[in-house]
Amino acid sequence: MQPLTLPRPIGFVLGGGGSLGAVQVGMLQALAERGVFPDLVVGTSVGSLNGAVLAMDPKGAVNLLNRIWPRIRRQMVFPGGPLAQLRTLQQGRTHLFPNTRLQSLITALLPVRFTFAELALPFGAVTTNIATAAPHVVTTGRLVPALLASAAIPGIFPAVRIEGLQLYDGGVVANVPVTQALAMGARSLVVLDTVFPGHLPEEPSTLAEAVLYAALVAMRMQAALETPLAAALVPVVYLPGPAIQRVSPLDFDHTSMLIERGHQAAKPFLESLEVTGPGLYGRPWG
Question: How far apart are CA 123 and CA 41, in angstroms?
Fold first, then answer.
């Protein structure tokens, strides 16, 4: 099979979605099998964590992520029980969890003082500027603070201050940062959306499912609005995801399954894909 040809630079866009970020590992494996590698990477939230590893080592990232993801457990990201959460809320007033465990997870993937300049590829970590409620892409300085900011889910983790700016999770305003990848110079986009692209959420039947439904729809709307605009300018390969799984983005007990199903969904799509020019290949919605 011939490698898939796309206009360069090729920008990989990795969306947010908590534990659903495991899907991206399977997608990256399918892309590598098709001979598709990025020239630049942009990520939001968990997509920025996966994206930083990809930008550090484009050819070796899949192996590293495949080793790390199945080992992640909820307590490694969201530590403590209800009493600990209450104490954190009383002390910080805006969030339930400290970001110390998340920082430890990040530094298991990347050196503590690693900088953007040391990456093999240009990389942008998408955050939300609290003062302007607009996306803010961090592309310079130390990686760890930028990744903590990109994953600082409001109410869950504290905001992170970088160069005088208070920053929250980029998923608030740009969960699938296609616009930001174009601004960084991409001439084609490969989108790795975590929230089951190509599938409509099922009708919820429980309170938990209703909350998950609302979260999936909110995360998908920005992508559904911005992706066709990008596709009018450049080819946008929007990888399909696995069928909807009733898995919370805060649940890390199913990462191996998500990796496998992400690969199974993306592989046949990529094997049959031919890109002939600007346009949308795949889609956010079903």
Answer: 5
Question: Is residue 166 packed enough to be buried (19+ CB in 10 Å), middle (13-18) or exposed (0-12)?
Answer: middle
Helix H or strand E encompassing 87: helix 82-92
What are the structure tokens assigned to 264, written together?
A: 């199974």
Average pLDDT of the chain?
A: 92
pLDDT digits (tens, 9 = 90+) for 211-224: 778 877 877 889 99
DSSP-based three-state secondary structure for 22: helix
* DSSP, res 187: S
Report pLDDT digits (tens) over 149-199: 999 999 889 999 999 999 999 999 999 999 999 999 999 999 999 988 877
- Enter the tokens of residue 26: 């399977």
Write the CB contacts of 151 (distance below 8 Å, at least 6 apart in sequence): 16, 45, 46, 48, 49, 99, 102, 157, 169
**In the chain, where do the E strands start and end?**
10-14, 40-44, 123-129, 134-138, 160-162, 165-169, 188-192, 235-238, 279-281
The strand pair at 235-238 and 188-192 is best described as: parallel
Closest CA to 228 of 171, 172, 284, 170: 284
